[in-house]
Write a structure and sequence with these properties.
712 residues, LRR_5, 37 strands, 22% strand, signal, four-stranded antiparallel β-sheet, alpha/beta, 20-stranded mixed β-sheet, LRR_TM_domain-containing
Length: 712
């Protein structure tokens, strides 16, 4: 007989409790599932309150949607009263009639122009979408009855009327408001009645004829606003004073406008700002101090599609960005990346500098990007990557090096093992439409043994060396379309048998693929063969069988592969899978290929000529700071202070004029100095000035602070 101790009894009780608890949870889960099914079924049987439209289920637990999109409506339809709370009523269109050009018509589009009194009588709506109509008249009582329910409203005007503030003033529960195509040249406190919208969190003003805001427009208004989206407004100057009261903004978009510069202190009061997008403007100048106030909160910064060159990027370098994760500088006019530009962006994860005019990347240009995982350098004018350019980017996962117009300035893009030193963890390399130095490329790919995705379409490669992918054991997606490959053998793809899931071979010159190439490929899911002059004989019978087998469960698979015969003549343009009976034959001299075993073949991974060195961690608490900076047309005077001077063993100052070919001027200053004067600088120019301090404590890295000055 078993004797139970006190602990044993507790264990048995715990087991029994757990068993009962699991049973109760299972029972509860079944009840919830049954309840959801009943609710969904019940809603499916509920009538739709408007005959012209359909009612659809929204996300589970969110209510139904009344879909009146593209119903050729010219007026708001009549609704049957309903006690149901609907997630949304949409009267929008798939196409925007305003954007239709050349007299194009949209017969199915709604063309609602008038919102009459109590237009939505009898409905309970959380969302109302009236976008992509051209509304020219709105009754003051149009939204009567929606006051207690409506949280989201989108409405478009006809470009002649101002927004219907009087009608909207009743909607005190509104959280999101989007206004487009209204005419209100000057928005001021008197003509913009938004005082009652105390719960508004998102405001969008798009493609309105608004050229100015009054200084008090938002003063003591919209206390919960966290997102402001300004788009297509004809403003040349950023409204600094006007947006100053919006202290709780977390997202600010000012896009497709005509902004030419960002002035000092533009976002100084927006200390909660996390996302700032200023793209699609004409910004040429970032004035020193323009990002003051948001360095400790901002996570996303979009400056793409502007007119910025490297001489005007100083404020990016001088601001201490403690949270910044993503910055987009693509589609500007940069000729180079200034050294130290990203030094204060230690948490940056994603960097886009695509579609500029960068011809070379100097060593040190990417210094400080210890946490960078995604780097887009595509569509510049690079003809090579210099040795150790990426040495400090040990966490980089995605690198896009596509080149402008498919060619660099010298005709060939050179990527060597030395140039990717430090990128052992790279998982995705994009070189699409870049004419490459083929010999160096294949060596480099062997070094990048953690690659998962390799995009080499349109790179003009002619042959894959045997055993090329021996060390690329993780390669799952291989894009080789639009090249000059003519031979594909087992040896050329050896190493990818267990990892390769997709291969794109479209528009090459491949005539046959014998069964051994993919005989051991256990992960292969897709293959693209369109545009190859395939010879359809017994050698590709395995391919026909594979396509037919996959198409049995995936009917469109055959069209994805899209392999068409080009020879013999009687099978020209016949899809492989359509060849019947014994149509795939070979002559009497044909010998079945014997698949090889390459396991014992010796291979070595190419190595760079220098060893990768890890970057030291950075202590973000600086021992010193600038206290005063003054400038004339030819001099800059700097004063600084140190918290603990005794910690410092030596000091160094560096300054450079920002421009295409920056020269860094180092100056050693006494460790107890607190002042320095830089002379003979150029007038009307931006200078990046950085101070470094070496500490007696060798376990701590050098400290660095920077400031950007524009001379008179």
């Amino acid at each position: 007989m078993k004797t139970y101790t006190g602990n044993d009894q507790k264990q048995e009780q715990l087991k029994l409790y757990n068993t009962n608890s699991i049973a109760r949870n299972m029972k509860l889960m079944k009840q919830i599932i049954v309840y959801c099914i009943v609710i969904i079924a019940a809603k499916a049987d509920l009538p739709c309150p408007v005959a012209e439209c359909s009612c659809e289920n929204g996300p589970i637990g969110k209510g139904r949607i009344i879909n009146c999109r593209d119903k050729s409506l010219t007026s708001v339809p009549k609704f049957q009263p309903s006690d149901e709370i609907f997630l949304e009523l949409t009267l929008s269109n798939s196409y925007d009639p305003v954007l239709l050009s050349n007299g194009a018509q949209c017969p199915s589009c709604n063309k609602i122009t008038f919102l009459p009194p109590t237009a939505f009588r009898g409905l309970r709506l959380q969302g109302l979408d009236l976008s992509k109509n051209q509304i020219s008249q709105v009754s003051d009582t149009a939204f009567e009855g929606l006051e207690s329910y409506l949280e989201e409203l989108s409405i478009d005007g006809d470009k002649t009327i101002s927004p219907p503030y009087s009608a909207m003033s009743r909607l005190s529960n509104l959280k999101s408001l989007s206004l487009r195509h209204f005419n209100q040249a000057h928005m001021n406190r008197q003509n913009t009645m938004i005082d009652t919208l105390v719960n508004l969190e998102t405001l969008e003003l798009k493609y309105m004829d608004v050229s100015a805001f009054s200084n008090d427009l938002f003063l003591y208004r919209l206390p919960k606003l966290t997102k402001l989206h300004l788009e297509g407004l004809p403003m040349r100057e950023f409204p600094v004073k006007q947006l100053k009261p919006l202290k709780y903004l977390e997202k600010l978009y000012a896009v497709y406008m005509q902004l030419e510069n960002i002035p000092y202190g533009a976002f100084q009061t927006m200390t909660n700002l996390k996302e700032l997008v200023l793209s699609h403007n004409k910004i040429e100048t970032l004035y020193p101090g323009c990002f003051e106030g948001i360095g400790s909160s901002l996570k996303v910064l979009g400056l793409h599609l502007n007119n910025l060159d490297e001489t005007k990027l100083g404020p990016l370098a001088s601001t201490s960005w403690s949270q910044l994760e993503k910055i987009n500088l693509g589609h500007n006019k940069m000729n180079t990346i200034p050294n130290g530009l990203f030094f204060n962006m230690r948490d940056l994860n994603t960097l886009n500098v695509d579609s500029n005019k960068i011809t070379t990347i100097n060593k040190g240009a990417l210094q400080g990007l210890d946490k960078l995982e995604n780097l887009d350098l595509s569509y510049n004018q690079l003809d090579k990557i210099n040795k150790d350019t990426f040495l400090s980017l040990t966490r980089l996962r995605v690198l896009d090096l596509r080149n402008e117009n498919g060619k660099s300035s010298t005709g060939l893009f050179k990527l060597t093992v030395d140039s990717v030193n430090g990128l052992k963890q790279l998982q995705k390399l994009i070189l699409t439409d870049t004419t490459v130095d083929e010999v160096e490329l294949w060596k480099t790919i062997q070094y990048l043994e953690n690659l998962v995705v390799l995009e080499l379409g349109g790179t003009d490669i002619k042959e894959i060396p045997d055993l090329q992918f021996t060390f690329n054991k993780r390669l799952s997606h291989l894009m080789l379309e639009r090249n000059s490959l003519s031979i594909l053998t087992q040896a050329k793809l050896y190493g990818t048998e267990k990892s390769l899931e997709s291969i794109n071979l479209q528009q090459n010159s491949i005539k046959t693929i014998d069964r051994c190439v993919f005989a051991n490929s256990t992960a292969l899911k897709s293959m693209f063969l369109y545009g190859n002059p395939l010879r359809c004989d017994c050698e590709i019978k395995w391919l026909q069988d594979w396509i037919r087998e996959r198409s049995a469960t995936e009917p469109f698979f055959r069209y994805m592969v899209n392999g068409m015969c080009q020879s013999p003549e009687h099978l020209k343009n016949v899809p492989i899978w359509n060849i019947q009976g014994g149509g795939l034959t070979c002559g009497p001299s044909y010998q079945i290929p014997v698949c090889q075993n390459f396991e014992s073949t010796a291979q070595t991974i190419p190595t760079p000529t220098v060893r990768t060195t890890e970057q030291p961690a950075v202590d973000k608490t600086n021992n010193f700071r600038f206290t005063k900076v003054s400038e004339t047309d030819h001099t800059i005077e700097i004063t600084w202070a140190m918290r603990v001077p005794s910690m410092v063993s030596s000091m160094k100052l560096e300054y450079q004029k920002l421009g295409p070919y920056p020269t860094i001027y180092p100056v050693h200053v006494p460790k107890y100095a607190e002042y320095f004067k830089i002379q003979n600088v150029e007038s009307d120019s931006q200078y990046l000035i950085c101070m470094y301090s070496e500490l007696y404590d060798s376990t701590k890295p050098k400290e660095r602070i920077c400031v950007v000055i524009k001379t008179l």
